[in-house]
Amino acid sequence: MRASRLLSVLLLLQNRGRMTAEELAAELEVSVRTVYRDVEALSAAGVPVYADRGRTGGYQLVDGYRTRLTGLTEEEAQSLSLAGLPGAASELGLGTVLAAAQLKLHAAMPAELRAGASKISERFYLDVPGWHRGIESLPRLSELADAVWHGRRIKVRYERWGQRKVERVLEPLGLILKAGNWYLAARCDGTDRTYRVSRIEELEELGETFERPSDFDLARYWREWSEQFEKRMYSRTAVVRLNEHARILLPFYLGAVGARALREADAEPDENDWLTMELPVEPGESAVGELLRFGGNLEVLEPADLRERLAEEIRRMGARYG
Question: How far apart are CA 90 and CA 85, in angstroms?
């Protein structure tokens, strides 16, 4: 552990130049006293690091010194696939590992490539969760990631929709990050299923390993599961009329479902620029709330029960505000 930290100190100084003890401590998540000891250890090992005193001082390497110790550990190499997702890496317990890997990669680059890499990180940032989403509590995520990686069977206590608690023995196959939410793909009683990680309340490793199915493809599984989930969620079809403003709002309000329905519409707007098309909607009251968001820019033509339910809600709103 200390050897890895000493190398991180060396690479930080190599990549960034002069750094104070406080800056090194914050970067490595250790105390300033630990930084002092680490710098002394580097000096004793023959690394030409020296300190400048004063308000603008700090530690730095003798000009021209570069280390060749840039080999990546197995964990660091794995974490590089999440280099664009620092938050995800941190949630999985790989935050410091990712930082060390990026330092080593940066140190190994020629000067011109290193400058380009710095420009990219300064100018582009990936923020995965959507707007207005709270941060989920994920106390079990790093344990799940460990079980997935090592193929260990687990027992979980899970809150299903409707706040019903169930216990399941799972063979975890993969983790998926979708729009800021984590999901677990796992085999349960011979069937592949999906679980929302934030709903896992308790987790116990059973001390057993399992054989991962050779034909399981995580990307294909998630794609097929998502398509089936979408069909279950939007199980009804409404015939609607939309003006231009509603057509602009459709992808924002209904996401990929609305965007796809708009692309697949086989009609053209009429002389007043209203388009009649089929639109997948959720069953029950959920559809009423979704469609009311469009206000007078959308009219439901069919089915009759949905049209009447919207008309009833609009009458109630009119009476309340009238």
Answer: 9
